[in-house]
């Protein structure tokens, strides 16, 4: 959830970059919420497992940029995001010794 809200707030900042604009403030509040969610998660989980899960934000950003900002969705970007997904999913599984 933190990675998703970070992606959304960054999109708001990209779309509406006027300082003290409503969308800027909404983006800032989303950033605050994502930071709060991560603080809570770090309190109860392992840093080595949780921090790589923030990389899912890159995956969300790819699709948000394509859908709302008209950015190109190339095969290279898709392959890169698949590698990020696989890596984050493997690490996010945690240690099961």
Your description of this structure?
The structure is a single chain. This protein is mainly alpha-helical and 97 residues long. It has one domain (2-92). It has five helices and no strands. α1 runs antiparallel to α2, α1 (2-15) packs parallel to α4 (56-69) and α4 (56-69) runs antiparallel to α5. The longest helix is centred in the middle third of the chain and has 23 residues, at 22-44. The radius of gyration is 15 Å and the shape is flat. The two termini are 27 Å apart. The mean pLDDT is 82.
What structural keywords apply?
97 residues, mainly alpha, 78% helix
Concise overview:
This protein is mainly alpha-helical and 97 residues long.
DSSP summary: helix tally: 5
H-E string: HHHHH
Strand content: under 5%
What distance lies between the first and last C-alpha atoms, to the nearest angstrom? 27 Å
Give a topology summary.
Blueprint: H1 2-15, H2 22-44, H3 47-53, H4 56-69, H5 75-92
Helix pairs in contact: 1-2, 1-4, 3-5, 4-5
